[in-house]
Amino acid sequence: MGQALLRYDLPLLAGISAEDLDALNVRSHVVSLSAWETLFEQSDAACDVYFLISGALMAIHWTEDGREIIFTRFQIGDHFGELSALDGGSRSLAVVAREPSQVLVLEQASFLRMLDRLPLVRQRMFLSLTDRVRVLTRRHLQLVTQSVEQRVRSYLVSFAFERGLLHPGAVLTDMPTHSEIAATIGANREIVSRVLSHLRRRGLIRTGRRRIEIMHPGALAEAEI
């Protein structure tokens, strides 16, 4: 079982041996999702931990009035669901597949044994949770201090930077839709569309279907409009 788990090259388990995992009797399995299928619902009681091994997923919060807020899009190898695994509480977000995807499911008991007996996994988990707090703090500050245009600019710069594409002429492919960007930054689709059109007219970006070309990253990153 340990060797089967390691074949996915998961960052959380880098440097961990199959023998380490076998000694913990780690139990996992893979599930397949079709496009727009839900992995788990908001307030779901399951407590397992998940790893994205192919495809694309996003974490969504549904407000009481039915609005959709997108918290994050997961990258291949990302883990999620650890908060419920740690405290036994229900899910705070729903996770939905944007395209056909495969997810590795690590049973809660196995995850807790790994944290307890594998210091490297425990350290990485603490760092991951710390980074998440910083991201949420930064997002909150953006919502209360920045205009929608500044938030769109920040989103594009972050999207490019995370992919090593923050340079003139860089092409960002598989871009989120305008609705997804809006749900991520706390705006509405119409305003996001207008902002992107404005940035295009100013020559800072070029746009196409699910793609954006960065023309002037320095100007795009400017805080003042």
From TrEMBL:
<dbReference type="Pfam" id="PF13545">
    <property type="entry name" value="HTH_Crp_2"/>
</dbReference>
<keyword id="KW-0804">Transcription</keyword>
<dbReference type="InterPro" id="IPR014710">
    <property type="entry name" value="RmlC-like_jellyroll"/>
</dbReference>
<dbReference type="InterPro" id="IPR000595">
    <property type="entry name" value="cNMP-bd_dom"/>
</dbReference>
<dbReference type="InterPro" id="IPR050397">
    <property type="entry name" value="Env_Response_Regulators"/>
</dbReference>
<dbReference type="InterPro" id="IPR036388">
    <property type="entry name" value="WH-like_DNA-bd_sf"/>
</dbReference>
<feature type="domain" description="HTH crp-type">
    <location>
        <begin position="146"/>
        <end position="218"/>
    </location>
</feature>
<dbReference type="Pfam" id="PF00027">
    <property type="entry name" value="cNMP_binding"/>
</dbReference>
<feature type="domain" description="Cyclic nucleotide-binding">
    <location>
        <begin position="12"/>
        <end position="132"/>
    </location>
</feature>
<dbReference type="InterPro" id="IPR012318">
    <property type="entry name" value="HTH_CRP"/>
</dbReference>
<keyword id="KW-0238">DNA-binding</keyword>
<protein>
    <submittedName>
        <fullName>Crp/Fnr family transcriptional regulator</fullName>
    </submittedName>
</protein>
<dbReference type="InterPro" id="IPR036390">
    <property type="entry name" value="WH_DNA-bd_sf"/>
</dbReference>
<keyword id="KW-0805">Transcription regulation</keyword>
<dbReference type="InterPro" id="IPR018490">
    <property type="entry name" value="cNMP-bd_dom_sf"/>
</dbReference>
